């Protein structure tokens, strides 16, 4: 496990950027319910983002090394989990196994996928999970890498509850 001062990217393909939902919150109108379904459900991806869309990552030089068939155009939480688990098992677990500590800083959907995995949250229940942005969530794991406290513990529980409610309210 790298020392605390060393940041190490996951090294997996780029996030799919949410497909056609990318930037949609600003354009949100009558389709808001569908947007929230795409954002929170487990296996309902939005339509793929066209390569010529200004928000597409298809021509981003950071991903120029990827063959076209591996360039993602949409994803749902199920896809995020599929991309995340190799990083969990190959990079994080070995360091944790020797007593290391990991600081995971990631996009909300990546964190939801990791929490789904750690807590064994069902595909249906995950749609109700809102992880607030910027509020540290601590997971202490046992020797089998299972949470000692399911759901972890927020360092500022009041701010976390308030922020999670704000996220929930976006879908109303």
How would you characterize this protein structure?
The protein is an all-alpha fold and 172 residues long. It folds into 2 domains: 16-74, no CATH class; 76-172, Rossmann fold. Helix content is 35%, strand content 2%. The protein has 5 helices and 2 strands, in the order ααααββα. It has helices at 24-27, 32-40, 77-97, 108-119, 157-170, and strands spanning 137-138, 153-154. It has a two-stranded antiparallel sheet with strand order 1-2. α3 (77-97) crosses α4 (108-119). The longest helix is centred in the middle third of the chain and has 21 residues, at 77-97. The protein is globular. The protein starts with 23 loop residues before the first helix and ends with a helix. The model is unreliable at 1-5 and 24-30 (pLDDT under 50).
What is the topology?
Elements (H helix, E strand, L loop, with lengths): L23 H4 L4 H9 L36 H21 L10 H12 L17 E2 L14 E2 L2 H14 L2
Antiparallel strand pairs: 1-2
Helix pairs in contact: 3-4
Q: Which key features would you list for this structure?
A:
172 residues; mainly alpha; Rossmann fold; 2 domains; two-stranded antiparallel ribbon; 2 strands; disordered N terminus
Distance between the termini: 42 Å
Rounded to the nearest angstrom, the radius of gyration is 17 Å
Count of helices?
5
Could you name the CATH class of the largest domain? Alpha Beta
Q: Regions with pLDDT < 50 over 5+ consecutive residues? A: 1-5, 24-30
Helix content: 25-40%
Main β-sheet description: 2 strands, antiparallel
Q: Which secondary-structure class do the elements indicate? A: mainly alpha
What topology, given as strand order, has the largest sheet? Answer: 1-2
């Amino acid at each position: 496990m790298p020392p605390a001062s060393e940041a190490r990217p996951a090294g997996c393909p780029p996030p799919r950027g949410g497909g056609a939902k990318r930037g949609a919150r600003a354009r949100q109108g009558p389709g808001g319910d569908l947007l929230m379904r795409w954002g929170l459900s487990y296996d309902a991806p939005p339509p793929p983002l066209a390569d010529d869309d200004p928000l597409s990552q298809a021509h981003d030089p950071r991903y120029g090394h990827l063959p076209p068939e591996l360039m993602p155009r949409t994803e749902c939480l199920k896809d995020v989990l599929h991309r995340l688990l190799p990083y969990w098992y190959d990079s994080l677990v070995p360091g944790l196994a020797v007593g290391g500590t990991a600081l995971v800083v990631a996009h909300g959907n990546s964190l939801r996928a990791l929490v789904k995995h750690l807590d064994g949250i069902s595909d249906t229940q995950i749609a109700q999970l809102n992880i607030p942005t910027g509020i540290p969530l601590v997971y202490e794991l046992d020797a089998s890498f299972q949470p000692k406290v399911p759901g972890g513990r927020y360092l500022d529980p009041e701010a976390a509850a308030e922020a999670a409610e704000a996220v929930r309210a976006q879908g109303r």
